[in-house]
Amino acid sequence: MGSQQNRSKEFRASLHKAILDESPDGILVVDHDGHIVSVNKRFFEVWRIAQPDYPLDTPANVSDDPFLEQALHRVAQPELFLQRVRELYANPALEDNCEISLVDGRSLKRHSSPLRSAAGEYLGRVWYFRDITDIVRSRQALTDSELRYRTAFQTTLDAIAITTLKEGCYLDVNRAFVDMSGYQASELIGRSSLELNIWAPPEDRQRFSRQFSSGDQVLNFEALFRRKDGSTFWGLFSASRMELNGVTCLLSITRNITDSKRAEEELAEYRKHLEQLVEKRTTELSTAKEAAEAANIAKSAFLANMSHEIRTPLNAITGMAYLIRRSGLNPEQVARMDKLEAAGEHLLGIINAILELSKIEAGKVTLSESPVRIESVFANVLSMLQERAQAKHLQFIARPGELPEGLLGDQTALQQALLNYAANAIKFTETGSVTLQAGLIEEDAHSVLLRFTVEDTGVGIAADALPRLFSAFEQVDNTTTRKYGGTGLGLAITRRLAGLMGGTAGASSIPGQGSTFWFTARLRKQEDTVHQPAATATAACRSTPDLAQHRILLVEDEPINREVASMMLEDAGLLVDTAEDGLQAVDRLENQEYALILMDMQMPNMDGLEATRCIRRLPLGRAVPIIAMTANAFEEDRSRCLAAGMDDFISKPADPERLIQVISHWLSQGRTGGPEQFPRPSLPGTKD
User: Fold this and answer.
1) Contact 107/100 with Cβ under 8 angstroms?
2) What is the pLDDT of residues 665-683, one digit of tens each?
3) DSSP string over 496-556
4) What's 393's DSSP letter?
5) What's the pTM value of the predicted model, to 2 decimals?
């Protein structure tokens, strides 16, 4: 009997332990004196505290057990936790069911109930603890989602309403719907839009019902709605089905588009007059275009006329000065003549600069594309400015560098830009050197980008003055006590030329140490590169013929220029006949053969272009070289001369040495070489 009782007792103990261990909750059982009777392993897992090394069913006092102290430290509010525990022990009849927040962010579900005997005697208390962190977080996420929905629902600017699908009764509306309709929410809930007469034309509501019932899940259309006060507004109405508590409802969003509709009506009204306005504006633009073209033509004509009128007397001045110098002068007269010629050169530089800038700004400059040799550009600049550099005892150095061959571009534009920089550098450098360099920046299969620099050891430029340098008519020193002269156009011309060549320009400087001016230019590569040395004035004239006994015709209407040119040509040994206009020139060619003709461009009775065309039709005029020597110095003037049948072009005032070189070239070559065999003259270097 005793053995059977023992087995029964052991069975109940094993069953009790198995139930505790398999429970999803952490369980703690205490007796009526507060001693721990039993605790399962899940209790320690839930609280995340270390399990003691003694048997868990060993009796212990709750207040003395160390693992309960660990659990207490896990509670976010331990004072409240202990206070509630004491209340439960003081009142055995109380039950407890609450949530506990832990310091690690988790949440536990706590449940406590008293244990009683069959007779109702208090035996102790059972504590259940379950980790409900995921449940709490899901519940909080749901609460947050509902809050976000409610916030968005109430704060959106569009009117939102939820209605029953069948009856169309309002279940919920947001604040914007109340504001838009003029009804209070209490006046809307439970009533339909048809009952409230919200649709201005009821037919719109019927049209909506037909379209929506046809199976469209989302419907968008414009409709006119009526407010509570009877006023109407246009709304963009969008509706879709939604499930709410198992019931299919309708979610509608309405946006007030009254202003947009009004704007559309105004636009439609404006569109009626648009064709008339466009036609009127087109007429105005056409008139303005014609006026602008006329102004541009007038400007070009004015520039051409100014060039001619200024260069004509200047040609007489420089030519007469040359002849006077050739006749022999005493030292005092030589000094005065030097000043006279320097003033003439300075005036010519100013004229050239102003005209060149005007041509660029007017879009009159068209760059050519012909073989370019950078070495020749540097050599030409050195030859033009070497005397100035030597007069100031400066080192004038050129370092072209290793550059690709077979490049195409406008050599005159490159030379002009580099010449402007170099002339400035020499002018503003008292001691030291001026160095010209070129280098390759980038290269692809079709083109190269080159960088040209001119570095000097001159006075330098202050940092605040650098941004003004490349503006037209700007100079570093604009005071009345300027030490250096100039127009302030050379740098502006260089930057514009660089821009035309696909590059840009800039400068850097240190006052007292010197400056570096640079510009870039993009040159195209020749497809079939054949290296040919560029022709130069020196090379072209190495075999200068004997000018004596060559009879030439000088066609010039201005008496002084005719006299000066005749004296220069005769001084070189030429036999010179003269004609005062194109008609006389044509008459001369009827019976007289000439080795060469110098033809002015702008003359009375018959100009040089028409005279050239007439001469080319004469037997004695077909092969004679005709060289334009004119005060019309624009590139288009040169093109017009060549198109009329002339062979070369010299702008006034003509440099006597260059004039003789050109004549010598054509007397030795005849017309077989063509005008491009002799280098095209560039404008003199501009001085800033």
Assistant:
1) yes
2) 999 876 644 444 333 344 3
3) HHHHHTT--EEEEEETTTEEEEEEEEEEEEPSS----PPP-HHHHTTTPPP-TT-EEEEE-
4) T
5) 0.42
